[in-house]
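Quality-control log, excerpt.
Job 1 of 2 completed; input and output follow.
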Amino acid sequence: MSRLSKKIITNLSEQKNEPGWMTDFRLKSLALFERMPMPIWGVDLSSLDPYNIVCYVKPAEKIWSSWDDVPENIKQKFESLGVPQAERKFLAGVGAQYESEVVYKNLKKEWEQKGVIFTDSSTGLREHEKLFKNYFSTVVPPDDNKFAALNSALWSGGSFLFVPEGVSVELPLQAYFVMNTPAMGQFERTLIIAAPGSSVHYVEGCSAPQYNQNSLHSAVVELIALPGANIQYTTIQNWSSDIYNLVTKRAVAHKDATVSWVDGNFGSKATMKYPCIVLQGKKAKGQLISVAVAGKNQHQDSGGKIIHAAPETTSQVVSKTICKDGGRATYRGLINVTKTAVGAKANVQCDALLLGQESIADAKPKIKVSGKTADVGHEASVSSLDEQQMFYLQSRGLSRSKARALLVTGFLDTFVKELPMEYAVEINRLIALELEDPIG
């Protein structure tokens, strides 16, 4: 499939054997996309033509549940990320998406027997249509923004996860997304539903090779944490420098529920990503911890939004950005405390580290408080590496390169502590690659 059109949409829906309501949803979303203007704020999108990308690439005819059966050319891509090793040792389940479709999905029997559903979104629609339809597009509607509309028209792949009431999935579930076709678009759609009193940690990894042709990653993620549920969603992206990463991620937390976004942005040509949590129920909690690393010719426009819409809700935002070799990073955040959020508490911390004279860090926070009982704090800092600390470390035998890397790792400490380092075996490698020669 190539250029975007109604025919592409209907062919995609027919190929997936989708119900009529989904075909209609896709076509209405395409009409919305065509009416909406391109964003003129944030990153520069002048070189991106969403009408001239490969909309869908089907890498295989089926989804495998045994890693040994996955075709060798696909398997090699994921083995380089440590997928099979991580699954065997540390994970409750794994999904692997190659191009536009999930090619491998496996959930350990222990969790399957407890009623956990972990599959790709197309299978979720086909096998659990009532549950899927009840929550699909309720958190991120197609008219939310231009690229949410594009995803709604073209979505393929992604994860569908349902955790039954009272079930705690003690090991993380992971999904890996790889793009390997030049000038393509990847439009996965992920829907996670945590029933009352349940708990789950979902980890997502993304990567792609360099092709020197602009590609587009435009995902939509919807999280629903029902009363007393706990969802942690961790993302580590390592897109190549020819990919526009334009995604919409949003969660709703009901009474006594907790949602945490842990978001790592490495690579890409340009990123626009602002995970959002709507604290909809009394005493709901939200946490957003993010790091963005912007190198040469990169612009990371990221941050997050938390909306306090119920009493006694609490939130924390911690943003760490590193700009090196002339890269640019923008923190764009919103804390909105509504009139109904009596006794709400929120705290925002934004820290930027500049490496190099040409690097740029911007902070564009917005705080909106309607009412007199909220407790809201905000602090921000911009710094460079401390030469006294550098001197001390070098005097203890470290090279200047290793001393810099050590200080940068310390700067990211709040973020790193939240990562499942013993499970996501590729994370150390991704961070190390970003901190290699340009910083050292």
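Job 2 of 2 completed; input and output follow.
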Amino acid sequence: MNSNNSIESFFNLDNVDEYKNIFNENKKIQIQNILKDEIAELLFKHSIMDKNWVLATGHDAIKFEKKINKQFEKANSIQIKKIQDKFKNDKFSYIFHRSMNNKIPSFLEFTLRKYMASKEFLDYLNSITDLNITTLNTLFMSKYKGGHFLSPHSDKGNGKIAFVISLTKKWRPEYGGILHFMNDDKTKIIESYVPEFNTLMLFEVPEEGIPHYVSHIVPYIKEERYSITGWFS
């Protein structure tokens, strides 16, 4: 990692006026090259080499997380089938792998959390969004593989704004894993975003939430969709 231990060595915090105008139009923006090239590559390498992934699944308000190893292989398989059935019955449900919740984080994870919670980064977000953000609520890394998905939900109560830093390389729309935004009654897609390496997706979460979902990844595909996700309030 760059020996210059500062937020400027980690993020590209520029073009504020341009981003502010875009965000004001529909309360969403996808910022290209948010991370310095070296940092983006380090986080990508961290993603593909991470040994701390857990299977994260859930339906309605019930969560299930187990380590991905032989000990929990049977329990995880049963849970995946259960969640697939919940999706068939139009219940909120999700399946993906989750990390960056370690009791002892790596130096890279520690630095990412420190800078994203810093006054400098919060000021940058506030300059773009005018949302008076003061706190990083949640941050985790996700990996979507074949068959993984996140069904329609609103993020209500999670924070004022959601973020997704994409660490996915050479992703194609036909693989799935697309972030779709929906109308209020969840009958139509109004905007879609394909994962793109080293981009920051920001979208406002109003008091009533905003309907969106991540579409199913094509089964048996070898490619994996990596991102860092969370909320500010």
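Post-run check on job 2. The CA atoms of residues 76 and 193 lie 30 Å apart.
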